Structure formats: C-alpha cells, structure tokens
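batch_manifest entry 22 of 60
target: CRAL-TRIO domain-containing protein
source organism: Anopheles atroparvus
requested by: lab member K.T.
priority: normal
notes from requester: please return tokens only, no post-processing; we will run our own comparison against the previous entry in this batch. if the run fails, retry once and flag.
--- input ---
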Amino acid sequence: MKLPLVALVLCYELVVLESSAKMAPPLAPYSVDKNPSAYDSYKFELPEFYREIAKEELREDDLVREQSLAEMRQWIANNPHIRKCRTDAKFLLRFLRFQKFSVPMACEALERYLVVRELYPSWFKNLDCDDPTMKEIFANAPFSVLGQDSAGRMVGLCRFARYNDQKHQPFEDGKYMAIVMETLLEWEETQIGGCQVLMDWQNISVNNLEKWSTTDLRVMMDAFSHTYPLRYGDIFSAKLPKFGVPIMDTFLSFANPKMREKINCFSTVAELAQQFEPTMMPKEYGGPVNLDELNRAFRKRVEEQREITLGLDEMEIDVEHYASVWQTASFTPDEITAGAILKRMEMN
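--- output ---
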C-alpha cells in the first residue's frame, strides 16, 4: 500500500507552509478524572489510507475500537491503584493500537507507562518545552521529524553529535526525547503508522557517549522499547565509531528482542542516505528537504501541545502497591528498586 509520489510532495509542501504560518493557540490539557460522568465521543478523521493500515495491521475497525475503549475505560474506573488517568479516546488508543487491540495487554502497557513516569520523574515528568535547558536542546535539533513516508510511518532523523556533550546531563537529553515522543503520540498518524528511525553518529564525541551510565542507558532504552507505545519499523544506524560500540552493546542489551531485530547498521553515511525516500531526503544528505524549516514546524507543534504534555503530570498511580506486589524490599525510586520493579513488569 503506497501513497503516490505527488501526494508525498504535496504533504511536504504543506508542512513547509505551516511552518511559516501563525502558530495556533495552545491546546488545553485533558481531564484526568478516571471515572467521568460522560466520555468523549470518537470519530475517525484521518485519510482512508490510515483506516486501511489500522484494519490490516492493527485489527482496528469502528466496532473493535468502540468495544475496546469501553472495556479499557471500565478497567481504569475499577482499578483502585490508578487514582487519576486520562480516559479520552486519543490517549487510550495509544496503548490499544500498540497492542493491536488486545485490551488486557493495552491495560498492562498503560500501567507500566504510569509507573515508570513515577519512578523516574526527573526524566519523564515536568516535560516543559519552555524550560531553558529544553529550549537549548530543541535549538540544537538532535532529532528531526521528516513527516510520514509512503507506508504511513513517521520518519525521524537523529543526529547524535548535536547533543551537547558537556553542558547537558543524560536525564536532560532523555527529557527532551520524552517531550518529542509525547508530542508524536498525540498524533494518530504515528499511533497507526508507527515510525522509522535513521541514526547518524558522525562527528560524535567520546564524552557524548561516556557521560551515560549503565543506569541512564537502561532508563532510556526502557522508555524507547517498553514504556512509550511506539510501533517501530526499520531502524537504520550509520557511522558509529569504534569507541561507541561497547556503550551501544550495553544500551541494546536492555532492548526487547523485536527492536534489536529491526536495527540495520551501516559503515558510511552514504549508505544511510539511501534509506531516505527521495522526497524526504534532507539537503545535508543530498536531497531537497530543508531541515531547519521542518524543525521549526515541529517545534511549533510541540509548543501548541505544551499544556497537554504538562497535564500528564496530573495522572496518579499507587506505585507503593506495585512495590509490595512485586516483593520489592522498599519503595525508593533508586536504581535497585526501580530496576526490580521493571524486571518484574517484564516477566509479567
């Protein structure tokens, strides 16, 4: 199933036009009442292309969606350990689509997401794009959203050398990526189409990798491969220097097997460039796309969704319950306790 080339060109031109338009007003945060008197009604409004992907890849249709949302909302309302939670359709569909509408698995994924946010608040809470440090990282633009490819996937480009190797700590780089992921997951195109990631390691410094401890690597990989309900397509990586191999081996040891199978490594950036669709290739790699314009457009979307992202902090879950259920000796969000809890979640 492919979009015609002209559609891709038009989509890219629309993104560029939006980047020069006046920014839309900020969107209001969603309610976190776990048992509201009435739930929001949902209407599928994406192009028919995404309806077909949802049906073929996720088993989603109007009836399945309606029934699954009703079951998941009832589970949340009845769960005494979830104190506050968004129940709007767009939020719950993140997890239902991630688990192909298996309601029990979607509920477990939501549980894990809520617990991890509480265990690592410095990484995953107060995700404020207006924070001075976040502004600096966004200005460097280590991650660029190129749009959707012909298969409907969000395509992201990560240029690791654009992370500051001296000024910013790993949790700050991680918080930046959490803002990016939360923003993307508000888009149903990403929920349905998933994502493809291209990673460019050229010009990265030793310190940019060595500043990450084993604990930092575990927290970040858990977010990428377990906590955030992102569906990954191919992951392409190029120009990783030899000094980075041991660190990346440690990083990937925390990934789930399915993610590791999707990673393709290249020795040259030229090989990486061949993985871009022609209309999505940045100028830096020989194509027509202006990354500065795309980065400005995405930053505006992040700013529009700022209150929605910050509003996630209003959700609450009883983490102490999970610590006792999983036979953790004490409840403190340190490496040992958090690691034990996450390990138990993976086993269950």
